[in-house]
Amino acid sequence: MPDKGTVAFLGLGHMGGPMAVNLVRAGYTVVGFDVVPAAVQTARERGVPVADSAAVAVAGADVVLTMFPSGGHVLDAYRGRAGQPGLLAAAPPDTMFLDCSTINVDEAREAARLAGDAGHRSIDAPVSGGVVGAEAATLTFMAGGEVRDFESVRPLLEVMGRRVVHCGGHGAGQAAKICNNLILGVSMIAVSEAFVLGEQLGLSHQALFDVASAASGQCWALTTNCPVPGPVPASPANRDYQPGFAAALMAKDLNLAVNALNSTGVAGQMGALAARIYDTFAAEGGAGRDFSAIITDIRASAEPAAADTAAAAGTGTDATGRSRTTAAHDDGSPE
Question: Which residue of 97, 197, 227, 308 sits 20 to 30 Å from the alpha carbon of 187, by its own alpha carbon?
Fold first, then answer.
């Protein structure tokens, strides 16, 4: 791929849009496309040229970068459907297909096979870091594919991310993403349960954070994406759980992990339970909230009498989960 080559960027949503903007700012020639008119409009307003169709976007591309909702979308786009040619047929020979979607490992390997059979190269490179990371170009990319192909796209990935890791052959990037988010989903539930338990026991949010963040309970779900307002000012909990990473996406990723657990015969009980918890939360109105909002569901299931007892003790939180010390200092400010 030539330095500062042409990138067809397909999928200009909450993640893809900012990623495309960062490529434009770095000097790449980007031609975008999305089936959602609002995403197209936003991309144009932020300086990303947009084609009238995916086929037009990929016609002169060195790299075809896809950021799609599911593996089915990726495979359909590659192969084509309803009698229409796919991206593999529309792209010039030996094009690099770089898929940054989060999909099943077997779907990633099938996409790589299709690309290879059509005379192209491919890398699967799902991302971690959410919308904030996409905007700030601080994403982590987990890449799978041939080493030489990975090295050819590394400069492009480093424009959009702070950490780029080659994880192995085709599908290894997806495997790493699924395993990472299995850890993240389970740990966020555990952190949320701990904060609700602390509320019930009369413990303030800040006290629990100060202890756990410097002890064996320390984890990203606590110190970066803390599910209660106050201790970590940048966490979504301070913005009414506006999503950095939506609960619906966590449910999706955990179900991908469950698929992998089942296909490999790993008895992953915590992963399966976390998937069910997030499935329910998303289905019952939490889909568009940050995944840390799972704490609101856990809190809603707590015994009200216990929460009232904690509030009456003058420590911890009141029945709404608001942090407090004593009634005399309950002025609404964070501790």
Answer: 308
| CB-based burial label for 65 (10 Å; 0-12, 13-18, 19+) | buried
Catalytic residue among 177, 289, 299, 324: 177
Model confidence pLDDT, tens digit, residues 15-61: 999 999 999 999 999 999 999 999 999 999 999 999 999 999 999 99
CB neighbours of residue 283 within 10 Å? 11
DSSP output for 142-206: EEES-HHHHHHHHHHHHHHEEEEEEEESTTHHHHHHHHHHHHHHHHHHHHHHHHHHHHHTT--HH
Is 177 among the catalytic positions? yes
Output the CA–CA distances (angstroms, integers) from residue 30 to 116, 153, 229, 309, in the order listed.
24, 15, 39, 59
10 Å CB burial of residue 287 (0-12, 13-18, 19+) is middle
Name the token pair of 312.
């009456």
